[in-house]
Task: structure prediction
Amino acid sequence: MTHTRTDLLIDLALEEDAGLGDVTSRAIFAPNHRSRAFIEAGHELTVCGLEVAARVFAKVDPKLKVTLTARDGQRIKKGGVVLRVAGPTASLLTAERTALNFIQRLSGIATLSRKFADVVTPLGVRIVDTRKTTPGYRALEKYAVRCGGCYNHRSSLGEHVLIKDNHIAAAGSLTKAVQRTRASAPHLAKIEVEAKTLAEVREAVRAAAEVILLDNMTPAQIRAAIATIGGAAVIEVSGGVRFETLRDYAIPGVDVISVGALTHSAPAADLSLTLVGRK
Result:
C-alpha cells in the first residue's frame, strides 16, 4: 500500500521526527556499526502497514535491508515476528519510531475491523467505514479496514450521492433534495438519503432513493423501517452502533452497517522493535 501520497506522508513524518537528524544515535554509533532487529506483536492482532514500514526504513537509509515475515491482513499471535531489518545501527534507530507509528496505527484499525467482521460475516451484513479518518491518512486507514475484513464506504465527496440532514434542511425537503440531485448528478450515481424518522423513510421511498441510511434509530425503529421500505432500496444503518450492540443492529433486511469507530477510535496495536545485536 505505497503510492505517491503515502510517500508524502512518510516524508512529513520523517521530517517531523528526524528533520534535524538523530543526535543520540549518531553520537553513539559510527557509520560502519551494524545491527539486526525485528518487530513483534505484543498481543494477538491483525497486522497492517508492513510495506509502509519497510518504505520508512528504505527512505531513512537504502542500506537498511528489510524482510517481511508476515503479510498485511494476517492474524498474528502474541510474540509473532512481522518484520526483520538489518543495516547501519544509527539509521535503524532513526527509522524505528516512524515505522512503528505507521504499523501500530494501521494494525490497530485492522484489528478492530477484524473484530467487527468476525461477528457479522455469518449474518450476511457488511460493516463499512466512514469519512471520519485522520486528515491525509484516509487511503491508508481505509486500506487497513479492508485488511481487517470490513469494507469501505465512499472515500470522498465525489464518489456517490449521500443526501444528509443539512442538505435536506437547505433544500427545503428530502423530496426536493432528491429531485435536484436526480436532475443534475451523473446518470450512474446512486442516490443515498439519510433518514432519521419513519416519516423520512416513507418520503425517501416515494422519492425512489436507491439507498436509505437509517440514522440513529433504535433496533425497533429499524425493523419498522425495513417493513416500510419493503425491499425497494438498499438499507444502511448508522449511528450509535457499538461492538457490544452490534448483533442488535444486524437485523435481517439490513445490508450495511457503517461504523465510524473503525477509524476514529481504534487503539494503536502493540508492536515493538527489538535490537538483537550486531549483524
